[in-house]
Amino acid sequence: MSRTAVFFHAHPDDEALLTAGTMAMLAAEGHRVVLVVATAGERGLADVEPGEDLGKTRMAELYKSAAALGCARVVLLGYGDSGLSSSGGVAEERPDNAFIDADSEEAAERLAKVLTDEGADLLTIYDPAGGYGHPDHVQVHRVGARAAEIAGTPVLLEATVNRDPLLKGLRLASRFYKFPPEFDIRTFERAYSPGETITHRINVRRFAGQKRASMAAHVTQAAGGEGPRTLAVMLKVPAVLYRLIFGTEWYVRRDLPEGTRLTHPFDHWPTGHG
After folding, report:
1. SS3 of 123, please?
2. Mind telling me which residue stretches traverse the membrane in this protein (predicted)?
3. Domain boundaries, the chain
4. In whole angstroms, what is the distance from residue 91 CA to residue 54 CA?
5. Is 4-252 a domain of CATH 3.40.50.10320?
């Protein structure tokens, strides 16, 4: 049975990092996959030419990523990228229409209309911490949860990362590699989700090629700032290791008991929903 899954993200490239494998898997299974972004990511660090419209460029990259994943539709809600302060919090200077300043109810209504128009069976958002805490990601959680409630979307999944192996890996790496002074491993003790709360562990290794293509589409995000960006580092990982490292995607579904272990987004379909 074909269903419709809507993936809600804050900026172009977020889909590549957290949900690309799941999106490719569902599209390959014949489900309708819709990608919604709140902003065009026009205030992100990026490697661009002087005078280039970063938002327009990043949306073009998003469409290329979506094509690689088999998305049927891409929707931009049209809010401004809120940006980040130097400390990683809410930026003081931001556009008048910044997503973080948007009325949550109004934004939820706009997303709910997409869900209703699509007859969405599933919506993905982020965990309450917004993953690593970006203000726009926290807003995605608030807005998306409310939109699912308004639209009556049966399944709501929070895209996240298993914090436990991430912390273990960072601590091990710190013994052999000197991280920059501003990098504090302790911040990851509160980021993403602990393993015991994760309900879905999706094996997406068969779709590593599509996931890698999704990452590669976001050319502007491979550089910018004072050094290599996360995507650039990930894309340098050899193919065999890439499948191992990025071959699992994690989600939390709050209406299921802690300790639930599922392997597909549509597992444990809610009673009364077809």
Report:
1. strand
2. none
3. 4-252
4. 18
5. yes
